[in-house]
Amino acid sequence: MEINILESHEDLSQQAAAIILRQLDAKKDMLLCAATGNTPSRTYELLAQEYGQQPKRFTDMQVVKLDEWGGLPMTDAGTCEHYLRTRLLAPLSINDSRYISFRSDPADPQEECRRMQGQLSEAGPIDCCLLGLGLNGHIGFNEPASFLQPGCHIARLSTTTLLHTMVAAANRQPTYGLTLGMADILQARMILILISGSSKKDIAREFLSRRVTPELPASFLWLHANVICLLDHQAADSWDIPNNK
Ligand code: GLP
Fold first, then answer.
1. Residue 235: strand, helix, or coil
2. What CATH number does residue 69 fall under?
3. Contacts of 117 by beta carbon, 8 Å cutoff, 6+ apart
4. Looking at the whole model, is its pTM more than 0.70?
5. In a domain? residue 242
6. Does the pLDDT at position 238 exceed 90?
7. Residue 140 Cβ contacting ligand 1 at under 6 Å
8. In 93, 122, 150, 179, which residue has its Cα 20 to 30 A from 160's Cα atom?
C-alpha cells in the first residue's frame, strides 16, 4: 500500500483528482467506483473544474455507485443518488448509459442486489475504486461483522453509520444499506482510499496497523496489490506511519 500524508484536505483532494485523471488518460472508458460522503466532495469539484477546461477528457468515463441508503425516495437530498447526480454525473455530463447504480427505493432489495451484480459483471471490473473510510472502519456499507460478504448485498447499518451527516440531510431515516461487496471492491484494478479530518484519527491508526480483520473491513485493502491511501495531517495526527508497500 502506498501511503501519502498531505498537508491539508485541499492538497489531498488535488492529489486524488490528479490520480483519477491519470487513470482516465490511460483508459478513456475507465469505470470509476464512486463513494459519497464528505471526504471526496472536493475531489469531485476539482474533476468538475477540469471538465470545464477539457470536457472531451470525460467523454467515455463510466461511473458505478458504491453504495446507497435504502428506504429513501431516489430524489431525497440525503441519497447517494442525489449526491452523485449533483456533484459528479451532471458536472461531468455522464448520462445514464455510462452510470450503474442501486436504486434507493427498490420494491425488492434482494432483486436489486442481483440486478446490480449482473450490471457490474458486464461492465466491470472496476478500474479505479474511490473509497472513504467510515468512522467504524467500513468501506461502502461493508460494516464491521464476524464475516464479510463478497458481492452486492443488503447491509444492516450500524448506529455509528446512521449518525452520518447524509442521514441528517435526509427527509427520513434509511432502514438498510445497499452496497457493493468486498470482492467487488477488491477486484478493482486500483483502489484509492481517502482519509480526512481529526475524527478519523483513531480508525486511521487501526487501519494502518496492518491487522486484517472483518471487524475493520477496510483492513482487507492490505490484501490488494494496488492501493493508494491519502491522509491529511488531521487524520494522520502526529503518529508514525509505517512506510509499507
Ligand atoms: C458513508 C458512505 C460511504 C463513505 C463513508 C465515509 O457511509 N456511504 O461511501 O465512504 O460514509 O463518509 P465521510 O467521508 O463523510 O466520512
1. helix
2. 3.40.50.1360
3. 151, 152, 184
4. yes
5. no
6. no
7. yes
8. 150
